[in-house]
Design a protein that fits this description.
With 426 residues, this protein is mainly alpha-helical. The chain has one domain: Up-down Bundle (Growth Hormone, Chain: A). Helix content is 78%, strand content 0%. Helix 1 (22-44) packs antiparallel against helix 7 (181-201) and helix 4 runs antiparallel to helix 5. InterPro entries: Efflux_drug-R_Bcr/CmlA (IPR004812), MFS (IPR011701), MFS_dom (IPR020846), MFS_trans_sf (IPR036259), Sugar_transporter_CS (IPR005829).
């Protein structure tokens, strides 16, 4: 069910984004990366403060982790709503409105009196960040096709990957000078800066003649069509389950390394940065790997490798073999494999449905963050320790690998899905 090539594309096979002047293209890609990073920044920046919030608001660790789950739920639900809206009215208005909601919620988080209010505001934060996440992906699909999109997703991951490095580090520094509420002051400033950059740099990328105005019935029809594509559904599940492995690490790592291994907030930030370096490095290696192998082969191989590393992680966490290094090394290797899954699964999925890019990206993002939202409390239920984290990480990789090989069957996917962008690689 590959998408019919767009007749408006240039005859030489290049996508519209490749016709832009290099400087303008660079600025747009940079801002798209920052948009994609808003969600991870919102999730990760307050991770070093989770134990502090637990004490300050007189809550349990599992209850505080639900504030993370709330953010993920907001990101998932928000994308389902914003994706079809962006296909109907264009990209810019929903984008700027969503970031504005995020900024307002961040301001209110600074003043949150208890955990219930904080959790509610985190859901609203996620709803606002959803606009940035889904519209950034839709804009990429508006401008780039096939393998060119896969390469751009890899480049965007370089910017997105900076978020997990900087966010806990910034959060740790903020905690040196103020309370956890100061983290949300920083998030407010970041949201305002990203909103200003998007308003200045990003044009409307969806022409009026390509907008879809079918209302609720049309939206339901578009979602129904997506659900009938077995390969697309399998690919978004693979992306979601890989995200679950990542979120299990994100939600459990502060408790594992600060409580179980007795690291300081700053040491934890450095450990977290190490994992992000592996994730970033893999996404950039993906650009080179795409010169020799198809996204299908890279996706299948990285999942198998990640499954093996996840099994090693579960063994070392359960037995205590190797201490801190015994947990860190296989964990970082799993994250690197997730870094190869994350650009290729979305590129393969969105290549099939460019005519409803906003809706397709919304469903993809909703599944990613929705499945991730289930992973966060699951770690807490299992005990908020290294074994609990490793169990969910391994489970996510196992399920993603199973779906990939049983449902998607990457070895049988035609390269034709990515054919429009092949000339751009030569």
């Amino acid at each position: 069910m590959a998408e019919t090539p767009d007749p408006t594309l240039p005859a030489d096979g290049r996508s519209r984004g490749e016709l832009l002047p290099l400087g303008r293209r660079f600025r747009m890609v940079l801002v798209l990366g920052f948009l994609s990073a808003l969600g991870p920044l919102t999730i990760d920046m307050y991770l070093p403060a989770l134990p502090t919030i637990t004490t300050d608001l007189h809550a349990t660790a599992a209850a505080v982790q639900l504030t993370l789950t709330g953010t993920l739920v907001g990101l998932a639900v928000g994308q389902l709503l914003i994706g079809p809206l962006a296909d109907a009215v264009g990209r810019r208005v929903p984008l700027l409105a969503g970031i504005g909601v995020h900024v307002l919620a961040s301001v209110c988080c600074v003043l949150a009196p208890d955990l219930a209010v904080l959790g509610t505001l985190r859901v609203i934060q996620g709803l606002g960040a959803a606009a940035a996440a889904v519209i950034a992906m839709a804009m990429v699909r508006d401008l780039f096709d096939g393998m060119a999109a896969a390469r751009l997703f890899s480049r965007l991951m370089l910017v997105v990957g900076v978020a997990p490095i900087l966010a806990p580090t910034i959060g740790g520094l903020v905690l040196n000078w103020t309370s956890w509420r100061g983290v949300f002051v920083v998030l407010t400033a970041v949201g305002m800066a990203i909103m200003a950059a998007a308003a200045v740099v990003l044009p409307e990328t969806l022409p009026r003649d390509r907008r879809r105005n079918g209302g609720l019935r049309g939206t339901a029809r578009d979602y129904g069509r997506l659900f009938t594509d077995r390969v697309y559904v399998g690919l978004i599940l693979v992306a979601g389950l890989a995200m679950a492995a990542l979120i299990a690490y994100v939600s459990g790592s502060s408790f594992v390394f600060q409580d179980e291994f007795h690291l300081s907030e700053q040491q934890f930030a450095l450990i977290f940065a190490g994992g992000a370096v592996g994730l970033i490095g893999a996404t950039q290696c993906n650009v080179r790997l795409l010169r020799r192998w198809t996204p299908q082969r890279i996706l299948g191989g990285s999942l198998l490798a990640g499954l093996g590393f996840g099994l090693v992680l579960l063994f070392t966490a359960a037995t205590g073999r190797g201490g801190l290094a015994g947990v860190l090394i296989p964990l970082w290797l799993v994250l690197a494999m997730v870094g190869l899954v994350m650009p290729n699964a979305p590129a393969l999925a969105l290549a099939r449905h460019g005519e409803v890019a906003g809706t397709a990206a919304a469903l993809l993002g909703a599944v990613q963050f929705g499945v991730g939202a289930l992973a966060a409390p699951l770690v807490g239920v299992l005990g908020v320790g290294a074994v609990a984290m490793a169990t969910v990480v391994f489970g996510g990789m196992l399920a993603a690998t199973a779906v990939c090989y049983l449902v998607v069957r990457p070895q049988h996917l035609p390269v034709d899905d990515l054919e429009p962008a092949l000339p751009a690689l030569h």
